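Q: Structure tokens for this one, please.
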Amino acid sequence: MARLSHWLLASTTAVALMAGTVQAQEENRFVMVTHGVPSDPFWSVVKNGAEAAADTVGAELEYRAPSTFDMAKMQQLVEAAVASDPDGLIVSFTDEDALGGIVQEASDNGIPVITINSGGDVAQKYGSRLHVGQSEYEAGKQAAERMQEMGVEKAVCVNHEQGNQGLDQRCDGFLEGFDGNAEQLATTYDPTSIRNAIVAYLNENSDVRGILTLGALAAEPMIQAMREQGATDMFTLGTFDLSPGILEALEGEELDFAIDQQQYLQGYLPVMFLDQFAKNGLLPAGDVPTGPGFVTPDNAAQVLELSEQGIR
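A: Here is the predicted structure, written as tokens:
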């Protein structure tokens, strides 16, 4: 009987140790919700970064985004993410009116939130722990300054997602940097509509010599329009963000500059930070800027190699 009791005690201890091991190895689950439409190559790089970080730390990552730029749909996705009670939430904070209350709810319920890409200037009002991205307004001003240094006196900012807080701030900074000598051209994100809108605008505004687009969805139709019109050399062309097409245009000197906010880090870093917070209670003390930096024809080839790997 003593031997049987000893065996039962040993078995119970082993089961308890195994249960403790399973609990210790349980994965953290993080949800990332962005406004990035599937056709935008920028967001595939963000997702690559987030997935790489999740693999590194052994976390489960759920990436969610609407099929079109739709703030009502994104609001629903964030609400569903909060309701699922993840160990951390990552959100591109594109509209504080639509998303602020939900982020506050997540924070109030003990879900740590990190915002990325957009809304870094207001997100902390709603309980966000920190922001990973760039100052969109200042980046827009820097784009204006660079164009003026290149001799541009009048320019246009092409906004393919009006109502996206980050893109609106980019245009606002650009217009401020030109001190009244620039306008905003609002379009949809449909490539044909963007191309036609740019051509029509330039035909009506012959004194405009600088064009700034706010991402690959607008930059690539702009570049195509310039090629078709044989007008690449007539304008100073700049854009925000990178894609293989943008980098090829830079390398071929069809584009003068692209503003790089290192979107891979906007996916990678929040996952790493949230994992450290869940495990050890550690977070950076403030926001983490990932840009702006400028890619030009001089360094495009180096960046293109990383773009082919899904990192830039």
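A few notes: Residues 1-24 have pLDDT under 50 and may be disordered. The domain at 28-134+262-281 is CATH 3.40.50.2300 (Rossmann fold).
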